[in-house]
Amino acid sequence: MVIECLLPKLYMGITEADLRWWLSGYDVSQVMIGVVASHSALQILHGAKQEGFKTLAIAVGADKRRLYSAFPGAEPDEWLMLDDYKDLLNQVDWLRKKQVIIIPHGSLVEYLGADNFSKLEVPTFGNREILRWESSREKQRIWLEDAGCTTPKVVTDPRDIDSPVIVKYAGAKGGRGYFVARDYRDFRRNVNLDEEFTIQEYVLGCRYYLHFFFDPLAQDGYQVHGIKSHAGQNLGRLELMSMDRRDESNVDEFYKLGSLRDLREMSLEPSFVVTGNMPVVLRESLLPEAFRLAEGVVATSFELEEESRGMIGAFCLETIVTDKLEFRVFEISARIVAGSNPFVGGSPYSNINESEMSTGRRISRCIRKAIETGNLIDILS
Fold first, then answer.
1. Which of 159, 153, 274 shows the shortest CA–CA distance to 202?
2. How far is the C-alpha of 345 from the C-alpha of 21, rounded, in Å?
3. CA nearest neighbour of 121 among 101, 150, 142
4. pLDDT tens, 168-180?
5. N or C: which end of the chain has fewer CB within 10 A?
6. How far from chain centre, in Å, is Cα 293?
7. What is the largest CA-CA distance in the chain?
8. Which residues, in sequence order, are CB contacts of 135 under 8 Å at separation 6+?
9. Across-strand partners of 154?
10. What is the model's pTM?
11. 31 CB-near residues (< 8 Å, 6+ apart)
12. Domains of the chain and CATH, by start
């Protein structure tokens, strides 16, 4: 199949010519969905099977194969076993021979490294260039604020800390290492100066993680209106897939043991390591604002750089809703998030449109529709 479209010349080190050359060797009727066996892989593999694709799981350690045998509905058709995830860079010819399309998630980027991921010479779902903006908290803030989101205030000099703040490290770490500080002394006691970090005001409220999907090929539904260089254009369909809250250890149980001051006298500090996810729905009156924020983020993604391809596929807005019913957006994940895992069988939102539509399945549906319409190159990088 010859696939024609106009694209920018470079996707994080992968050129348009590279992608066209790889796809010229693909029999698109035999595409295989590939994913690292971690994070949201069960959901992605299950969704790919629902959409009729063959599947490949990539792993280090034989124990992964045994685990996935416990879930026959998601058990991959084939495995690629590695000694180290960075060995994936040496398997690109084999992956392309297998007609693999890689679905990225947080563990892939973390295990492989952002630079190595940008050089992975295999067709990959979504826009890798967007992940470069996601990986930098400074770039994230510019993106979100340009999109009309209200974000927590940033403290640039830790000596200026005069009220509770949360210190976050870069990358997808599942909250590991995050900590709360009330003053500079707290900050110095807990910070790892060898890692890149951001200091944000600690906003009181309920944390909601909103899982959206943007399909640039769909021409119906809730259309995202373009801005600036794309003003007057419909960019594609925005869908609310699901939302979650997160169980975090040990902060969720910390309050039961006494005041923070008492606990610190016992050398105990709260931590924010994500251990699980809980389904949640918003009060319906908040949904218009949720969609406004998500639409702004997508529309702005097309303006981040000259000829930007914008958002493609799944993304998550990580928010706090205050007692004044105002959203604060403190982070964006420009890919599928593990918080969508409670919804392998669909969510109260996605089931309204089609039953059993998980985010993992929605990714494969997007790929299948792109193959059917000859637009596969438009959703890959």
1. 153
2. 37
3. 101
4. 887 656 667 788 8
5. N
6. 16
7. 68
8. 109, 114, 170, 171
9. 200
10. 0.92
11. 53, 54, 99, 100, 101, 367, 371
12. 10-149+205-247+277-379 (3.30.470.20), 158-203+248-276 (no CATH)
Half-sphere exposure of 81 (CA within 13 A, CB side): 6
Which one, of 74, 32, 18, 75, lies nearest residue 371 by Cα? 32
| More confident call, 193 vs 358 | 358
Which residues are CB-neighbours of 80 under 8 A, at least 6 positions away? 34, 56, 57, 58, 59, 88, 91, 94, 95
> How far apart (Å, rounded) are the C-alpha atoms in residues 222 and 224?
7
Residue 215 backbone dihedrals phi, psi, to 5 degrees: -110, 105
User: Computed from CA positions of residues 353, 354, 360, 362, in that sequence, does the dihedral angle turn out positive or negative?
Assistant: negative
**pLDDT tens string 192-212:** 888 888 999 999 999 999 999
Question: How many helices and strands in the chain, by DSSP H and E?
Answer: 14, 15
Q: Report how far residue 311's alpha carbon sits from residue 214's, in angstroms, rounded to the nearest whole number.
A: 7
Q: Which two tokens stand for residue 250?
A: 């040990």
| pLDDT single digits (tens) 3-14 | 333 334 445 578
Could you list the beta-strand ranges (E) of 69-204.
Answer: 78-82, 100-102, 165-169, 179-181, 197-201
- Give residue for tokens 């918080």: 339
What's the token pair of residue 100? 């693999």
Please report, for residues 201, 236, 283, 292, the alpha-carbon distance to residue 216 in angstroms, rounded to integers and kept in the order given: 35, 4, 28, 17
The dihedrals phi and psi of 355, each to the nearest 5 degrees, come to: -70, 150
Q: What is the C-alpha to C-alpha distance for residues 333 and 109, in angstroms, rounded to an integer?
A: 12
Q: CB-based burial of residue 306 (10 Å sphere; 0-12 exposed, 13-18 middle, 19+ buried)? A: exposed
Q: Write the burial class of residue 230 (CB in 10 Å: 0-12 exposed, 13-18 middle, 19+ buried).
A: middle
Q: What is the Cβ-side half-sphere exposure of residue 40, based on CA atoms within 13 angstroms?
A: 27
Pairwise CA distance, residues 315 & 301, whole Å = 12
